TrEMBL record:
The active site is at 199 (nucleophile). GO terms for cellular component: cytoplasm. GO terms for biological process: protein maturation. This is Threonine aspartase 1. It comes from Protopolystoma xenopodis.
Amino acid sequence: MHENCIVVHAGAGYHSKHKETEYIQLCSDACLRAAAILTQDNSKFRSINAACEAVAFLEDNHLSNAGYGSNLTLDGSVECDAGVMCGSCLRFAAVGSLSCIKNPILVAGHLLSQQIMDPFSRLGRVFPSLLVGKGALDYAVNAAGFSRIQEVEMISPSSLASWKKYKNWIDHVDKDTCHSMSLHHVSSKKARFMTPLDTVGAVCVDSFGRVASAISSGGVAMKSPGRLGQACIYSAGSWAECSPEEDGKVTESVGVITSGTGEQLIRTQLAQKCAQRVINDTLPVPLAVEASLSTDFLNSRFLNGEPDQRFAGVAGCLWRSLPFVRKRRSSEACVEIFFGHTTQSMAVAYFVDNTMKIPKSFISRKPLGRRHLVGAFSHRLLSC
């Protein structure tokens, strides 16, 4: 067994410098919440539970665009998306356009655990991997036992104030174009503030190298009701994958979580493509991430005809066991934490249990003129 590893992000977009300390502390605390689960939970779902716990913690904070404080739709309602993936069995579960549930990610986590334990329901019906709207709410309350809350309880004072401000801007736009396209008719400065992309996510690797990824989002500000973002779409918002186990051991695993413009991330399937480059490429991890952002996103043919503004952020880790050397008398592993973004900034934190005393948490800011920014950290892990 090796040390546990956690990576979290609080979104790629624009993070106010006035709130930088708050974002840094929030991400650090989320890492510690996940670390506690990985240490105390002895179940086979511990990496899933830890990732969901970290994201649920982020959902509860008004700084994030997930759960409480989510961006509001054009009509002023709350609709959340969340998804979680298990790297060991490669199963994925998600909810979309969900309201009146405090922590959407926990519903997705419950859906995933049911899918793993009992992939077929009665009469052989396939267990769902994605539920949306009323179906997701009914499942959360009636099947999973979550409490239904009033929608107003999910609206923070700041999200309501932002909605009123954005609505006023849009109301001054030509009524014939006042739908989701309205963002293209406001000034670029206003558009920057109308599109906070602070989706939140977590990747957790347990002491056996088993990985899970989880992600949650309230979606883009002033979105059309019913719109789904990348958080609930397979291979677009998150990815987790382990090598087939040999003698009960994982030799390598990778987890990726994304943030950015949902429609662009869906069309490029960025989470899976980034993960595959990182785990399969002969390039060093930072160069593999850079290649993914450049080739799979910024220059992707699937975004032909899109505006020049292409927003994406990725974060995650690559875990690999190292060849056994008898003279060391212990097995070793290496974990490489990475992040990259095309947006102005990205909030990231990571923690390697027993190797670090406290999480490393920071706001990465892209210099002017750069198309993207990539960073990585490497840690060698001794067996516990």
